[in-house]
Fold:
Amino acid sequence: MKFGLIVIVALVVSALAANLLLEDPGYVVISFRGYLIEMSVPILLASFVLFLFTAWFIVKLFRAPRKLGEAAGRYRAGRAGQRLTRGIIEVAEGNFAKGERLLTRSAGVSDAPLLNYLQAARAAHLLGQDNRRDDWLRLAYEQSPEAANAVLLTQAELQLDQEQYEPALATLRKIEENTPNHSHALVLLGRLYFRLNDWEHLAELLPKLTKHGRIDAATLHQWSLRVYQEQLQAAADGAAVQSVWKKLPKKQKKDIELLEAYYSSLIRTGMHAQAEKEIAAELRREWRPPLVRLYGIVEADDPARQLKKAESWLRDHGEDVDLLLAAARLCLRNELWGKARSYLETVIAIRPTPDAYQEYGRLLNRLGEGDAAADAYRSGLSLVARSPIPAIPHLEPDPDNE
Structure:
């Protein structure tokens, strides 16, 4: 619309100018340093237009190489972008070798060579070519040194995936030097320590992960739980166990896995009285089967009182097999063989477990029933074995029963 209007105006102006010039073409005289130039007005206008056209043409001629270069660059960049897209698609579809070739061939003319080399490194990694993977990562860094952390993080992820833990640790430490408390690097470092069972360093890392790490709550909870369990299990004596327990976050102390680890550690270090007292108090607050099982293992100073307390719980939890097994174990400690047998046979009838069969076998052997004891042990083993258990020979009676 605009161009058409301009054409119409130009035609009208040209017609008017031609009409005027035909009536009187005019006369122009130019005197310059002794030279005299005479011409009509139409000739002057034509010369001016020719001059403008010539100047425009010369400018275009000089600009042509640059324009051609820019056009060629756009073409190459377009091709490079297409190859980048095709390379990523090939890698995603599992054609790693072809994808790697497309990505590396177009990297030199790509607008984003960093992306080409990072994707090529992943393709080489998936092909198991660690040397080529590291070469592409090195080129990625050389092309974009400002993206050093991105390159190092990619390298650390790939090294972790290949279980190359020492190189991964060195890579993550470089990131720590460049950018202390880098959130993703902290997560990768935590993953590394968890895989290496390096609970000491993971414990030191937990506060940083909580403050800076972009880590999901479930993973952080899993790592924290495992660290605290290991600390409790590594405690050398009761005082050390209690010291570790006091340092734990208050909300973590309600976790059943940690409670189980804590009470087990108290039992392991000989603090049976305290374990019995605290387990009983915890069960009054909330009934938890793992703690009920532990109560039957605790060797308190007064086993009769301990059994009485366990049997009082049977009024409300009479069919709880964990409580029945605990009561059976306490009966064994009190040498109440008949009652222990009754409890164990009830457990086996409701829900047979390897522990129940083991205690039952020990009891039967003590009572001189060797064949029945062997059958009980065999039944318990069959619950955990993948293949049938052959018959167990007749067992001799327990010497303590003779």
In short: Residues 41-92 form the longest helix (52 residues). The CA atoms of residues 1 and 50 lie 28 Å apart. Strands lie at 28-32, 35-39. The longest strand covers residues 28-32.
